[in-house]
Specification:
Elements: H1 2-25, H2 27-33, H3 41-68, H4 71-95, H5 102-123
Helix pairs in contact: 1-2, 1-3, 1-5, 3-4, 4-5
Length: 124
Amino acid sequence: MKPAMRGLIGLVGLFNIAIGLGFLLMPQKLGLAFFLAPTDIQGLATLRADFPGFFVGAATFALIGAWRADSRLLLVPMLMIGLALFGRCVSVAVDGTLPTTVPPMLVEAFMLVLLGLGYRAFRA
């Protein structure tokens, strides 16, 4: 079970690294994919700073946690992704939904499930 979870969590980490690097290298393209449009240079700087910080930060702990099979390290991406999902739930409650609302929530929930399963597997 541990080797499979290490691989799956590694994929979660690589997925988030790819998104983070996309924001760093192509902020306008990734911004549009996330329904964000910077209004000026400072907006581009924010996309290049904050989004890679979130995605690469979570990915780093997921990858190191998978590499070491260390459940404690998985708490960081679980917290970060959980907070993102919570923010989306607040947005649904306050703003309502669109057809584009649910897919990112499902991706975040899926990553949380994998990280949670990894946490359990690595504690054993």
